[in-house]
Amino acid sequence: MVDPVAFSRRAPLRRLLASNGAQWSSLGDVAVARSMAGTAAADDGIVIVDLSPLPRLGFKGRGTIPAMQRRAIVAEAVPNRAYRQPDGSLCLVLAASEVILLSDLAGNGERLAQLEADWRIEDEERTYPMPRRDSHAWLAVTGNALPEMFAKICAIDLRPEKFADLSIVQTSIAKMSAILTRADIGGRTVFHLLVDSAAALYFCNCLLDAAAEFGGQFAGLDTLQKFEDG
Fold this sequence. Notes:
The chain is α+β, with helices and mostly antiparallel strands. The protein folds into two domains: 41-53 and 134-229, Probable tRNA modification gtpase trme, domain 1 (Gyrase A, domain 2, 2-Layer Sandwich); 56-132, Alpha-Beta Plaits, CATH 3.30.70. 23% of the residues lie in helices and 30% in strands. The chain is built from seven helices and 13 strands. The strands form three sheets. Strands 10-11-12-9-3-13 form a six-stranded mixed β-sheet. The chain has a five-stranded antiparallel β-sheet with strand order 5-6-7-4-8, covered by helices on one side. The radius of gyration is 17 Å and the shape is globular.
């Protein structure tokens, strides 16, 4: 059995997930909630998955988009747009001068680590790395009632016809600044949320409260990976 406190890094929601029956597996220097004991999310219920242990990295600066393109990252200078990468990861373009790279669901972080290691100020590319794994918690939320649930805590219209796949909105959710990206998996609508890691527990409790009437509960990483497998 994997002990999440035995790792050098601990995800901000570890205690909350443990109290909800998390079953852990190792992912490099951290444990990830692979499944949740005693829970079985309904097909139409809201489920929340903590992806905070997975790798992510940001870049910021006037030369960011050209620098990413030189490194074979699929991206354009279109603010609030996400781009799927051939390896299953995501590039979130928040502005022409800022991106966040999210790993695939397997947690393969080698490419992101190499991007960070290869950056040199001497190259004068007008971009610099940002340690988003430290600054932002990462949650995924899925279920048929996503627009209705988020309407309780967010003023943005997130209905499918208004908020398309790969759209991004930077807004206030539960009175916190958040980055919300729609990036569907296996034909299922999935919202990815990035929020201040220091307030992740508060934010997640707000999500749970808003999702309660829709059967909201935690699920493990296995749930999203099954979506990929169809």
